[in-house]
Design a protein that fits this description.
The protein is an alpha+beta fold. The chain contains six helices and 19 strands.
């Protein structure tokens, strides 16, 4: 059997596929080994002041208001006050047409006169029967009946007198008077309008005693109400003056809950002075109640408490993964240890080391550090290059490579 050997040119072609595969593997491993290194974004631990607040919204209202109503039904004949009218106690605000009530007074007077006449007749009748009874001319039963008629006539006179008094009171109520000094906030009737007071007294005017003293009924969530106490200071803004910050003070924390769509809130009353009358009744206030304030404390950004290190760095530093924010042991929430990562200020290329700290108050952006760090320490707040290294190019043989 004769063996045919390949020509030299054909032999060279047979080496090309293995050579190309080898070069591809070299390039691929070179790319994997030269991926960008992790870069840690750090900020120094600073010293300063921190204020913790509880926020809520509420409506601004005068401290004392009175709804002036009407006890009678009738047509408004005259209005003596309008919006923003200053009034004094006893001033006439409005008058109801008194014609029908004057007629009722005259009717009651006539009924009283008739009852007095019947009483006089009963007295004369009883006196005459007493004289006849002494002479034994009438039986005692007639005398007793005359005395009972006399008492009944006296009672009828009392009833008619009360009816006349009530008619006069109703007539007096045709004039609506201001119950206190103040200013008219709203007027709900016009001249010629008929008011009906059959079931409830309609509100004609709303009077505020003093607009220089206002209060905010602020709704505080149940999760924050435990930190709110009387005499705490508060600041708030309104949409009418977005650049101006007003100040107030907590004067009452009410125990009655308000439940709306399974959300429980409590009413916190904030007292406000309004000397320039810029605050109007009904304005919506965004309130911040100061529950804690500290000065000259160490603080770090809140984002530093949420940084998660790659598994390889965690194992290198601690021997086991450490989740930042996880607490050890028992105790109050703000006293539990939390993990942050610190980079030496002299060599920022060194891998961060985990440090257990204890937190204090927070304003939502920064947190007080009560233990574990010193001023100037640099804490990690972000990691760049992590995604590129975590998800590198896939292996040509299947699977993926994860390298830090």
């Amino acid at each position: 059997m004769t063996t045919i050997l390949p020509q030299p040119k054909v032999r060279r072609l047979l080496f090309l596929p293995p050579l190309a595969l080898g070069l591809g593997l070299v390039v691929w491993y070179w790319i994997c080994d030269n991926k960008p290194a992790l870069q840690f974004q750090t900020v120094p631990v600073s010293c300063g002041e921190l204020t913790q607040v509880v926020t809520g919204t509420g409506q601004i209202n005068p401290e004392e208001t009175v709804q002036v109503g009407c006890q009678l039904s009738g047509r408004i004949q005259k209005l003596c006050a309008d919006y923003n009218s200053p009034v004094r106690k006893g001033d006439v605000l409005a008058e109801i047409d008194p014609a029908s009530y004057e007629a009722l007074v005259h009717q009651a007077e006539g009924e009283l006169a008739s009852a007095k006449a019947a009483l006089e007749l009963s007295r004369l009748e009883a006196k005459r029967l007493e004289q006849l009874f002494l002479k034994e001319l009438v039986p005692k039963s007639e005398l007793d009946k005359s005395r009972a008629d006399l008492h009944q006539a006296e009672a009828t006179v009392q009833v008619k007198e009360a009816g006349l008094e009530k008619a006069k009171v109703d007539l007096a109520h045709c004039s609506i008077y201001a119950p206190m000094d103040g200013i008219v906030i709203s007027r709900n009737v016009d001249v010629g309008q008929t008011v009906a007071a059959s079931l409830s007294a309609p509100t004609l005017f709303l009077i505020a005693k003093d607009l220089t003293k206002m209060q905010i009924d602020c709704n505080i969530p149940e999760a924050d109400i435990g930190n709110v106490e009387v005499n705490q200071s508060a600041t708030f803004t309104v949409d009418a003056f977005p650049q101006r910050q007003f100040r107030g003070q907590v004067v009452q924390v009410r125990n009655a809950p308000t439940i709306l769509q399974n959300v429980v809130t409590y009413d916190c009353v904030v007292e406000v002075t309004n000397p320039d009358l810029k605050l109007k009744p009904g304005m919506t206030a965004n309130v911040s109640i100061v529950i804690a304030h500290c000065e000259n404390i160490l603080k770090i950004p809140n984002i530093a408490l949420r940084v998660t290190m790659p598994d390889t760095i965690q194992k290198k530093n601690t021997g086991a993964p450490t989740e930042p924010g996880k607490t050890q042991g028992k105790g109050k929430a703000n006293r539990k240890p939390h993990t942050v990562y610190v980079v030496p200020a002299s060599n920022i290329k060194v891998s961060p080391r985990p440090v257990q700290i204890k937190k204090g108050i927070t304003d939502g952006t920064e947190t007080e550090v009560t233990e574990g760090l010193a001023e100037g320490d640099r804490v990690v707040v972000g990691i760049s290059g992590l995604q590129a290294r975590a998800s590198g190019p896939s292996s040509p043989f299947g699977g993926g490579v994860r390298k830090y």
